[in-house]
Predict the structure.
Amino acid sequence: MSTTKSTNGGTNAATDFFSDMFKTTVDMDKMIEAQRKNVEALVEAQRVAFEGYKTAMERQVALMKEAMNEYSTVTGDLFSGKTPEANASKQAELAQNAFRNAFENSREIAEITTKTNQDAFAVLQKRFTEGVEEMKSATTAAKK
């Protein structure tokens, strides 16, 4: 930073700050291009997120259909036991299988959405890194 002498023999920090600030030039074409790329990255991140969440939703629908088909099948088997003890045992087994399936299905959906979030964030993170470099090159100190 340059030092400007004030009338009383000292330096004037405010004058130094503003005179140095105006020595920086900005390449507006580079700035506009950087903003265009920012918007493109946002659009791409939204597309990635949309596709991922669409996949998760479609998988949830398929899993629900599978579960409904399975439940309608096992409902008939539920009371097919010869004794109340056999029916209770069958109910416990069906409940355990239903719980296990629900847990696995939830895990699968969580993995899909986690991957979707990571992929969308990676697009934005890449653009942020590029943008920092572009901003550095778009603002240059004026030649003295």
